[in-house]
Amino acid sequence: MLVxxxxxxxxxxxxxxxLMEHGNVAMLVNIPEFVILGxxxxxxxxxxxxxxxxxxxxxxISTVFGKGGAEKHEYLELLSLLxxxxxxxxxxxxxxxxxxxxxxxxxxxxxxxxxxxxxxxxMGFICDNLKVxxxxxxxxxxxxxxxxxxxxxxxxxxLLPSQSISKVGDSMxxxxxxxxxxxxxxxxxxxxxxxxxxxxxxxxxxxxxxLGILMAYGFFGPVSTNLELKAKEGxxxxxxxxxxxxxxxxxxxxxxxxxxxxxxxxxxxxxxxAELEEAIRK
Length: 282
Hints:
There is one protein chain. By secondary structure, the protein is mostly helical. The longest helix has 55 residues, at 195-249. It has helices at 2-20, 25-28, 31-48, 51-64, 72-92, 98-102, 114-117, 120-135, 140-188, 195-249, 254-263, 273-281. It has one domain. It starts with a helix and ends with a helix.
């Protein structure tokens, strides 16, 4: 929602200032310039991005208009889930959670926490690493390194759409100049026309430069930054899981293990010690 508000503010400020100078809005609605710029943007994206990256970009577009990282209640659900898993392991042994991690959708534990279960990447991260803990006797520091490798791989993939869109945005002013030059070429073919015809043609050519710069700094750049920040916010969720798992494997009690995870949450969304304790008690 805030993304749409920001775009409206950007366009509103530009059009308001333009109208204050008695500009003709119809001059800005130049379809050929939109075709040139839009085609160049899509074409350069296709050329520069492998199919897998294009698929990631398409999948990430909807997230631009969605919320950012996890909220406090989602972190509480995650920590509560981990506490129950750790407690079951302490009481019944590692084998007791084998069926839960093999098929979380049928697990009596995981199905209680919808926000965690619906996060497919996080569920894969939790279950894969619990399987490692069940089947190996990996020391905490080695488990920490393994989890960090997994997190870095996910973070790299999550940042690819942002990086690709940023590079296309950087090229938009250049594409605007291309559109403007083409407009000048068209204008030169009308050199014998009256001044008002030439003025209109030159104005249309300059619209290309204007649109290229506007799209670069008003839309592509902000969208790229939005995706980058959301990718980094998503990484925090995995860091919380990592901190909890490593602490538990290191011998910490379940409540201390999830407290380690709580400390990895940014202050803006971090539940208090009392809130976590209350969630665990429930």
